[in-house]
């Protein structure tokens, strides 16, 4: 005979299940935080070619500008405050435009952290515009509202040893080249549950160059490959947006630099604040993570 479980008992079991899943996510969240990318800048030059490297150090690094996207986030990840005015990059009938945008930040339940239904530690970021911005930026007097020349605005993943050619000048087929170079293959001697003994650690350099013989290394990173395949918890770098945000006739980039699939680390690179013999300068970063 099939016994029907009382409603209260089912509710207690459901609550226990949800609580168990939430606790598991919290543990995983802590482990993910150790995988955030670390960045800083060092440089070197030569007579024929200039190379500048963005290498790993302690995270986080402070930046002169603020970067934000819309959506729901863990409370400590949001940089914007309600009532603030930012500049948002929007796709409009005129093209891509930087528009003054009022930010609204509402508290919402964070289903990873807020085990108590009455608590709301998460934050939801929205704007007063009808359409959604590609990203929001604040803190630069040299960024003005108006049309922004855009090469592309859809995420493009980068493949090692293949070049992404970009052009801001319609008369030139390729003003800039973005590439990931496989620097070396190292046998990974550390055995773990996720990565077996046949796993290799590969070192890569994410770089951008132009036609004036300047090449700049934006990021150095490592990926673990097993049988020449990237593990499911890893992802390659990607370019989210490319164009001329500061209108100086030179390329600007918004890149995703996090290597872990559960972490997002959007970094905005602009050309106008770049120092001598450099193409770009990192000016803002927005880091988030999931469960």
Keywords, separated by commas or semicolons:
291 residues; mainly beta; 7-stranded antiparallel beta sheet; 6-stranded mixed beta sheet; 1 helix; globular; disordered N terminus; FG-GAP repeat protein
Describe it.
The two termini are 41 Å apart. This protein has a domain at 24-67 and 145-289. Mean pLDDT is 77; it is low at 1-59 and 186-197. It has one helix spanning 7-33; strands at 40-45, 50-55, 66-68, 71-73, 85-92, 95-108, 122-127, 135-138, 146-147, 149-152, 156-157, 163-166, 176-187, 199-210, 214-226, 238-244, 252-256, 263-270, 281-289. The protein is built from one helix and 19 strands. By secondary structure, the protein is mainly beta. Strands 3, 4, 5, 6, 7, 8 and 9 form a seven-stranded antiparallel β-sheet that branches. Helix content is 9%, strand content 44%.
């Amino acid at each position: 005979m099939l016994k029907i479980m009382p409603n209260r008992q089912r509710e207690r079991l459901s609550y226990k299940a949800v609580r168990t899943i939430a606790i598991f996510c919290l543990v995983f969240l802590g482990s993910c935080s150790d995988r955030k990318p670390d960045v800083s800048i060092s440089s070197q030059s030569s007579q024929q070619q200039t190379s500048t490297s963005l290498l790993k150090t302690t995270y986080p690094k402070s930046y002169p500008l603020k970067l934000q996207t819309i959506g729901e986030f863990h409370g400590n990840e949001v940089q914007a405050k309600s009532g603030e005015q930012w500049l948002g990059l929007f796709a409009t009938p005129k093209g891509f435009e930087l528009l003054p945008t009022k930010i609204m930040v509402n508290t919402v339940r964070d289903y990873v952290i807020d085990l108590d239904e009455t608590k709301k530690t998460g934050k939801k970021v929205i704007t007063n515009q009808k359409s959604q911005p590609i990203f929001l930026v604040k803190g630069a007097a040299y960024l003005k509202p108006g049309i922004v020349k855009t090469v592309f605005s859809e995420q493009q993943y980068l493949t090692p040893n293949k070049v992404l050619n970009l052009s801001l000048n319609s008369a030139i087929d390729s003003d800039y080249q973005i590439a990931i170079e496989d620097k070396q293959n190292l046998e990974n001697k550390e055995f773990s549950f996720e990565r077996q003994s046949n796993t290799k650690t590969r070192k890569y350099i994410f770089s951008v160059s132009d036609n004036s013989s300047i090449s700049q290394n934006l990021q150095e990173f490592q990926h673990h490959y097993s049988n020449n395949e990237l593990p499911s918890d890893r992802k390659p770098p990607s370019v989210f947006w490319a164009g001329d945000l500061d209108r100086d006739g030179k390329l600007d980039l918004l890149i995703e630099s996090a290597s872990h699939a559960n972490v997002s680390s959007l970094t905005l690179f602009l050309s106008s604040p770049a120092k001598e013999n450099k193409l770009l300068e990192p000016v803002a970063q927005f880091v988030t993570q999931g469960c």
